[in-house]
Give the backbone structure.
Amino acid sequence: MTPYNKPDYWSLKAQKEGYPARSVYKLKEIDKKFGLLRSGHTNFRVLDLGAAPGCWSLYALQRLKTQGFLLAADMSPLASQYGKEYFEGKNFLFTQGDITAEETMKFIASYSPFNLVISDAAPATTGNRSIDAFRSFDLAETALDYGKTVLVKGGNLVVKVFQGGGAPNLLKRIREDFFSAASFKPKACRQESFETYYIGLGKK
Ligand SMILES: C[S@@+](CC[C@H](N)C(=O)[O-])C[C@H]1O[C@@H](n2cnc3c(N)ncnc32)[C@H](O)[C@@H]1O
C-alpha cells in the first residue's frame, strides 16, 4: 500500500463519524482557528467549490443547523450514501460542473451573494510536482475570482493551493482584496502532501 491509500488515523475517524473522507477535519481545524462558521447569522450563505465527495458541505450544513444556504459545485457527484438528511434539505443545492466554465460561473453567480466561499478544489495529481502545482494554482485563482465577485463585503474565503509555483503571489493578491490573509496547514493534511490553505478574512 502507498501512503495515499493506507487508511490512517484521520480516514478511520472519518469512517467512524459518518463522513466520506478525512478532508472534513481540515475544514474543522480551519473553522476552529478562524471562526468562519460561527456567525450566529440566520441567513448565512456558503459556496463550496470542489465539494465532492461532500465532507466540507456536510460539516458546514451541520454547523448551519438548517439555517442559511449552501451551494456546492464539483465535476464529480457527491457520495450519495452520506448525510442524506442534510443533502436533501431545502437549504442545500449541488451543481455538477466545471467551476472554471462560464456556464457554471453564471449559475453560481445567480445564487450570490455569499458570506463564505470555501474551495478544496484540487486537480487529479500527475506525480509531477510542477504540473500539479500549476493546475492547483489555476483552480485557486478561480476560487479567488469567485470570492471577489460573489462574496458580500466583509465575507471570508478559504482556498486550497499546492505549494510552489505562483502560491506566494496568490497570498499577496488575497491580501489586496481582504482585510487580512493567512496561510494555514491543518494537522489533518497528509504529512507528505504539499497542499496548504489560504484564508482571506473580511472582503474589502
Ligand atoms: C480534495 S477533493 C474535495 C474534497 C471535498 N472538500 C470534501 O471534503 O469532500 C477535490 C475536488 O475538486 C474537484 N475539482 C477539481 N477541478 C475541478 C473543476 N475544474 N471544477 C469542479 N470541480 C473540480 C474534484 O472533482 C474533487 O472532487
User: Anything to note?
Assistant: The chain has one domain: 25-203. The domain at 25-203 is CATH 3.40.50.150 (Rossmann fold).
